[in-house]
Design a protein that fits this description.
The chain is of the alpha/beta class and 317 residues long. Helices cover 43% and strands 13% of the residues. The protein has helices spanning 2-9, 26-35, 48-61, 80-87, 104-108, 135-141, 144-155, 160-173, 179-189, 202-213, 216-229, 244-257, 290-295; strands at residues 16-19, 40-44, 69-73, 93-99, 231-241, 278-280, 303-309. Helix 2 links the parallel strand 1 and strand 2. The radius of gyration is 21 Å and the shape is globular. Bound molecules: S-adenosylmethionine. S-adenosylmethionine (SAM) binds next to helix 2.
């Protein structure tokens, strides 16, 4: 949804634009190309390996005359205020993009343990340098009920209970270590007639485990608030989600930021007359065109929401 992202952010020359999840740098390249030499692009990725990819692509993809100032930080977007303080003299952002989830390069690398299609360690951490628990650590130690809840809420998995039980039974004999061990266990939990459909039965479990390993929903909740806080007057935050749970969180956060607060002492929950600082760019989220959804199956569940900090009024009103 690159066209839609550019439309809502409409990056002008000389502005400061943030790509909070730079990935392979596709969106960032478009942003950098629009803001020109006088602009500043700040690129973050929690995965230091992806950040390097982006740095290379952006440096090679733009010649020196058109290249803005560029800052790269291997950080989660929750740290954006800190990054702007350190790297941009605390300048507020004119645009912030979050394109959530996993990158196809991460999925394709068997060593990262994101995909059930290739044998690899059960890892699924975005940042392997920060320590943190791997997918194997979680699945081999978490209570059965927690595993079931992750599968149900993060993966919409119908057979959550059966799979959680199978994981616990299996680990009592031999802990799970590889992606293919987990994928085979999940497939065996599906009724035989449902094992060979268009979508592999392991898809939902792998998505759920990745979300749990990286606390992705908690990060959205905290991180979107941080990103709202750094927007300049007239600045826009655009969030692209691929998971209904993430989209729900963004929708609620945007709604409460763009609605007058409730009067604290009023028992009838009356809205105060204080003008909210933000306005929604569009009421409904933008979805991919049918053509894009056909071309790119990952785009099918994409939802783009955007919110803008209002300009400071100068008419005294
Ligand atoms: C869908 S990809 C972004 C693709 C990118 N827009 C492009 O055009 O190539 C999502 C990226 O977000 C990164 N990521 C995930 N959680 C993050 C977080 N909390 N903070 C920063 N980056 C994160 C992932 O490592 C991945 O590289």
């Amino acid at each position: 949804m690159a066209r839609e992202v550019l439309e809502v952010l409409s990056p002008r020359p000389g502005t400061l634009q943030v790509d909070g999840t730079v990935g392979a740098g596709g969106h960032a390249l478009l942003l950098a190309g629009s803001i020109g030499r006088t602009g500043h692009l700040v690129a973050l990725d929690r995965d230091p390996e992806m950040l390097e990819q982006a740095r290379r692509r952006l440096t090679e993809g733009l010649n020196e005359e058109e290249r803005p100032k560029m800052t790269f930080a291997a950080q989660t977007y929750e740290q954006l205020p800190h990054v702007l303080r350190e790297q941009a003299d605390g300048r507020p952002a004119d645009g912030v993009l979050l394109d959530l989830g996993v990158n196809s390069m991460q999925l394709d690398d068997p060593g990262r343990g994101f995909s059930f299609l290739r044998e690899g360690p059960l890892d699924a951490r975005f940042d392997r340098t920060a320590g943190g628990r791997t997918a194997a650590d979680l699945l081999n130690t978490a209570p059965e009920k927690d595993i079931e809840n992750w599968l149900r809420t993060y993966g919409d998995e119908r057979h959550a209970r059966r799979i959680a039980r199978a994981v616990v039974r299996r680990r009592a004999e031999k802990p799970l270590h590889t992606t293919t061990e987990l994928a085979e266990l999940v497939r065996a939990c599906y009724p035989p007639a449902q094992r060979h459909g268009r979508i592999d039965p392991a898809t939902r479990t792998f998505q759920a485990v990745r979300i749990a390993v990286n606390d992705e929903l908690g990060t959205v909740e905290r991180g979107v608030k941080e990103c709202l806080g750094v927007l300049a007057p007239g600045g826009t935050l655009a969030v692209l989600t691929f998971h209904s749970g993430e989209d729900r969180i963004v929708k609620h956060l945007f709604r409460s930021a763009s609605t007058p607060p409730e009067e604290p002492d009023n028992p009838y929950s009356v809205r105060s007359e204080v003008e909210p600082d933000f306005e929604l760019v569009s009421r409904k989220p933008l979805s991919p065109t049918t053509e894009e959804a056909e071309r790119n199956p990952r785009a099918r569940s994409a939802r783009l929401r955007a919110i803008r900090r209002k300009e400071v009024r100068t008419d005294g009103g």
